Amino acid sequence: MLLLLYAAALVFFATLRAAQSSSGVRLTADPPWSDMFPGDTVTLTCQVTESEGWSFIWTRHRQGRVSQLGGSSGEGGSVYVLRSVKEKTSGMYQCEAKRGNNRMFSNFHNIKVWDGPPQAVVVTDPPGSVMFTGETVTLSCDIKGSGWRYSWARNTQGRLESLSSSSTETQKKHTLHSVTEADSGEYMCQGEGGQNPKIQSLPGVLQLNVSGEKQNPVITHDPPTEEMYTGERVTLSCGFGGDAAGWEYLWYKDTQGAALPNTDSSRTDGSSYTISSAALSHSGEYWCRAARGRGPFYSEYSNSVTLDISAPQQAELTVQSGWTEVFPTERVTLRCEIQGSSTEWMYRWYRDGQELPVDKADSSSGNGDTYTILSANQSHNKNYTCRGQLARTTSLYSNLSNIVQLRVEDDKPKPVITQDPLGAVVYIGENITLSCGFGGDPAGWEYLWYKDTQGAALPNTDSSRTDGSRYTISSAALSHSGDYCCGAARGRGPFYSNYSERLRLNISDYPLTVVTLEFGWRKIFTSGSVTLRCEVLGISAEWNYTWYRDGEIQQNHTRETLTVRIWNISDWGHYECQGNRSERPFHTRTGEGFDTNTFMLFCILGLSGSVLILITMVVLAVKCTKKCKKSGQSKEQLNKDEFYSRVNADYISAGSRLSTGAVYEEIDPATESQGIGQHCFYSAVQLKPLTQGRSM
User: InterPro entries annotated for this entry (predicted)?
Assistant: First the structure.
């Protein structure tokens, strides 16, 4: 710190003395340069113009110390000679002129004594190691100090060629006009200075390369994207990618004519062209090229870049799930997007106009383009907006987005389950569709189905499948009977609704038909036909009927009864029927049928047996009558009853041998008392062959 204060004071006094020297005291040196080498001699002379009678005092300022020097010579000590200088001789020298009470200080003269030869350095104008055909190149030999005499040479393929030399500093520079590739080579310079002995600098060397082709600069822009917006700062850069020293850059827009000037919003600075606040008018095609040296020498034009400046677009706000009606605890994600832009944006979020912070309850994720409400409640019943902030700058925003209004309901929804077709009973083989819904906007819901329990949801099977809000049983079976309910889920997580009410499915088989015989012997013998009736068990309704004989449909027979000609062998067969109608159940199963073949066999056997029994009874009756006349009246009546009983038992025994049925007959004893005599009347009660029913 003290050293700095001293240096400042020294500068002050030196300035003061220099000002005083302007009154007429002047210090000169021979030789006049400052740089000396060991052994050199310097003569300092102090002169006061147009005045005599002055005496002189000599001082040296070195490293903060001022030393008064003795041994001056000349009139009044006006000459001070430094012989065989050394390194310690270096310093700032000054003389003071005194006459009476008058004192004047001279200017300073700096002497620098080098302890060895300095290094020569070759530099080019224009700067750079590569030049182009036609350029003018000036080589300069820079050596520390002064008083040097310069010489130039070129090394061409190992051969040293002297170019120039001089005893003055005028040959410090060597100029090559309109260079060609033949001027390429290694250029050297060396300086010679001092007195006796002479001192030579270390030689300076430069490899000069001359290119036969002009360079094309490359233009780039920042920001590097092609999408730029009004108000942005845009910088175009022009360069060669390597040594670009000495070039001045020119900029062109839409045409390669006149270069662009500096304006309030755009300015060239070295190799850059900066648009401080882009406007739509800055859109266009840009080039650059470079110039250097005398003439000047121009490079080729660069590649072109096109700036497309546009106004920031409006942000678009959407609900990622697609619905704005949400329910308590549901997760909601809002997405903000700048449509058609590939630029990186950051986003700011607003609820009822107030900017939303990022907190644990309402988390914002990623680069901020989504805003997630983890668990919705009534406080989220608000209007939401967003806007984009350009990531590469903090000052550029998009327009505010559209408004999204979230409506948070009070409770979780409860779906309604319905059945198609309607009805308390569903029949085997029918298609059943259960539907689940909310009666309003079903957006985003996926439906789950449950049977008998609200545990695991029903999977798809061969006979049942979920499709959106429907659960379809393609062919109902008894195993599908049960209690059904549904629920719905949507979004990430997911969010589940409440369960619906239960719906009971009862799966039943179709009603069964049975064929019965309307029996009457008189009709059989008089008309030769029987009447069959189709009965539907369990359901009393209006039916249309279909009759089958041996599995073939009997055309033109749709009534409940069917007349069969039993004496016509072609009508014999196994008869079945089926009921049909336009309401559920639409048809029946075919059950117990009727076999006319068996019936005819029964008729023949029954008729033969009846004749035989009749003859037997007549014979027995005659014998019995005779016997009864011999016995008493009471005994006659007893034997008569016993006879009837035995005959009936024998007949029943005979009928039991028929595998398909029995014939029951009764002898009416009252006929005798009615005056009918010994005739017996028989009545066939029922002939009913039994067969196994089948479903049609």
Answer: Ig-like_dom (IPR007110), Ig-like_dom_sf (IPR036179), Ig-like_fold (IPR013783), Ig_Fc_receptor (IPR050488), Ig_sub (IPR003599), Ig_sub2 (IPR003598)
Give the whole-angstrom CA distance, residue 444 versus residue 491: 7
Residues whose CB is less than 8 angstroms from the CB of residue 100 and which lie 6 or more positions away in sequence, other chains included:
none
Query: Any idea what DSSP says for residue 357?
Result: P
Residue labelled with tokens 């003859």: 615
Which residues, including other chains, have CB under 8 Å from residue 616's CB and lie 6 or more apart?
none
Q: How confident is the model at residue 23 (pLDDT cuts 50, 70, 90)?
A: low
The region, left, alpha or beta by phi > 0 then psi within -120 to 50, assigned to residue 405 is: beta
CATH homologous superfamily for the domain 218-304: Immunoglobulins (2.60.40.10)
Q: What percent of the chain has pLDDT over 90?
A: 26
- Asked, as a colleague might, if the bond just before 126 is cis with ω within 30 of 0, I would say yes
Backbone angles phi, psi at 590, to 5 degrees: -85, 130
In the chain, domain spans: 2-113, 121-211, 218-304, 316-408, 416-508, 512-597
Read off the tokens for 222.
């920042």
Mean per-residue pLDDT, 122-129: 85
- What's residue 594's pLDDT? 82
**Average confidence (pLDDT) over 193-205:** 76
**Euclidean distance between CA atoms 189 and 204, whole angstroms:** 5
Architecture of domain 121-211: Sandwich (2.60)
Candidates 3.90.76.10, 3.20.20.140, 2.60.40.10, 3.40.50.300; CATH matching 416-508:
2.60.40.10
**pTM score of the predicted model:** 0.50
Peptide bond into 494 cis (omega under 30): yes
Which is more confidently placed, 572 or 342? 572
Cα 19 to the center of its chain, rounded Å:
79
